[in-house]
Amino acid sequence: MREFVFTIEYEEGVDELMDLFIENPGLHSKTMAIHATSESMWRLDRLTGPTEVLEQFDDITEYVTHCDGVKGMCGAPVVEWDFEVLSRTPDKRIVYSFREEGDGVHSIPHIAAKHIGDGLLMQAERRGNQYQWRLLIDDDDTVGEIYEEVHDALSDDLSLSVQRISEPECWLEAGVGPDGLPPEQQAALEAAVEYGYYETPRRNTVQEISNELDVPNSTLQYRLTRAEAWLAQQFVSDTLGTEVEDRIDPAELELSA
Fold first, then answer.
1. Is 70 helix (H, G, I), strand (E, B) or coil?
2. I need a labelling partner for 52 at 20 to 30 A (CA). Which of 18, 87, 124, 187 fits?
3. Among candidates 115, 155, 159, 106, which has minimal Cα distance to 135?
C-alpha cells in the first residue's frame, strides 16, 4: 500500500467554511475518523483555533444544512449535510457530520470508495486554502482514475494536485498517541510560522500573535515551547516529517481511451 495525498486549493469566496480557514491561519481541522459508501459519508473532526473563529464556525454550521454552493465538490442540485458538535471548549471542537451523496459531482471520499471498494482508509485535513485528503492505495491506475474524475469535475476556482509519499507515515503520526504533538500545539506552531515569528528579523512577537489569535500570551508561549521541544526530539530521533517520493505529473495519470 502507498500513501497518496490529494490536495485541493480554494480561492477565497468559493466556499464559506473554507473562507474561514483562509482568513484565519490559526484555524485547523483534522479527521479523527471518516467513513464513506456509495451513498453517504460520516466523520469526526477535531477543530482547533481562536475562540471567536470557532464561534463563527458554529454559526455557519447552524444554517449550512445542505451543500449546493461548493463548486465542484458537492452533488447537484442539493446534498443533505448535518453537523453536530459533540465536544466544545473555547479553543477546540469535536464535530460529527453526515452527508448524503446526490447526483452530479461527488466528494473525494465517494469517488475513492467507488474505485477502491472495501478497505478504503483515508484522512482529511484543512488549513489555510488547502483541503487535503490522504488515501492508502495499492496501485497507480486507481490513483489515475480518482484524479481524473475529481479533476474533471472541479470548477476554475479550485485546483487539484496529487503526491506520492514514500512511506505511509501519516497513519502513525502525532496526535494519536501520548507522545504526539497535540492539536493545540500544532496550531500554535502553524500560527507562529504564518505570522513570521521564526523569520529574521521577526515580523511578530508571541505577544502580537497571541493578540491576533485571542489566546493568552502565556498560553501561546507554553504551547510553542512544548511544540519546539517535541520537534527537537523528533529531529534527533530522525523521525520528523514525511518523505514525499514525488509530486505526480497529471499527465502521468491520464488513462488510455
1. coil
2. 124
3. 115
- pTM score of the predicted model: 0.67
Using alpha carbons only, give the angle 8, 12, 14 rounded to the nearest 5 degrees. Answer: 70
**Residues 221, 205 share a domain:** yes
Task: Tell me, yes or no, whether 81 and 103 share the same domain.
Answer: yes
The confidence band for 107, taking pLDDT boundaries of 50, 70 and 90, is confident
Please tell me the distance from the alpha carbon of residue 189 to that of residue 227, in angstroms, as a whole number: 7
Residue 39 shares a structural domain with residue 156: yes
**C-alpha–C-alpha distance, residues 21 and 12, integer Å:** 10
Closest CA to 108 of 64, 154, 66: 154
Positive or negative torsion for Cα 150, 152, 155, 160: positive
The DSSP bridge partners found for residue 95 are: 45, 85
Q: Is 206 helix (H, G, I), strand (E, B) or coil?
A: helix
Q: How far apart are CA 8 and CA 5, in angstroms?
A: 10
Q: Which of 117, 224, 132, 144 is nearest to 170 (CA)?
A: 132
Q: Please, are residues 252 and 161 in contact by the beta-carbon 8 Å criterion?
A: no
CA 139 to chain centre: 23
Task: Write the burial class of residue 229 (CB in 10 Å: 0-12 exposed, 13-18 middle, 19+ buried).
Answer: exposed
Polymer length of the chain: 257
Half-sphere exposure of 32 (CA within 13 A, CB side): 14
Using alpha carbons, list the distances in angstroms from residue 191 to 24, 50, 185. Answer: 9, 11, 10
Q: Are residues 10 and 114 in the same domain?
A: yes
Nearest CA among 88, 20, 52, 27 for reference residue 214: 52
Model confidence at 226, pLDDT cuts 50, 70, 90, reads: confident
